[in-house]
# Entry
Amino acid sequence: MLKFYYSGAPNPTKVALFLEEAGLSYEPIPVDTRKGEQHKPEYLAINPNAKVPAIVDGDAIVFDSNAILLYLAEKTGKFLPPNGDKARGELLSWLMFVASGVGPYAGQSVHFRQYAPEKIEYAINRYAYEAQRHFGILDARLATRRYMLGDAYTIVDMAVWGWARLVPVALGDGAWTKFPHLKRLVDEISARPAAQRAVALKDRHKWKTEMDDEARRAMFGHLTQKVA
Ligand SMILES: N[C@@H](CCC(=O)N[C@@H](CS)C(=O)NCC(=O)O)C(=O)O
# Structure
């Protein structure tokens, strides 16, 4: 059975959404990143980047959430746009845009707002600005179409949902008023039974909740290593 290495964080949750939407059988394997389980040698053999999610499907190992979405969509033939170069071009562009822009900037915005030991105004503003700019691009796209690629619900919408659910965490309460079209998509997906199962998946396991020294050491390696 497909093994799904996960936590309740945004990137694993978008993969959980696909697994639930597609009705695939899978074994969820918790990786408690606050305990440092992502750094265990047996997990590094699956994902050398020491992050969740990852999957093991027979002899295939896939890590990075959008790579997993694409792998599973192509394998099952589900949640892909119609055939053709135009649709494939859009699929790849938006998947990479979410992977390289939306996720990293929203993640860093959360980091500097919530977790950085010092409140550095420059960093907070830079990442909030970029996160807001990226969410704004998604919002503009969704102003003229129901889903990211048009009429069909695809893995791009799942990828968007993963991080867009956290707009208020990345940008503060009240930020949703700036992205009404993105909010419509997030609300629509969140209301789907598969999304509710994906979000509830983390409740099957007990996770470390404290962001204490052990958690900070595991997740923020730069606190103990000066590079520059
Ligand atoms: N590009 C990766 C990023 C994965 C990622 O940053 N995962 C976070 C959770 S959303 C994580 O594992 N954090 C634990 C850590 O940084 O130690 C993906 O899309 O899967």
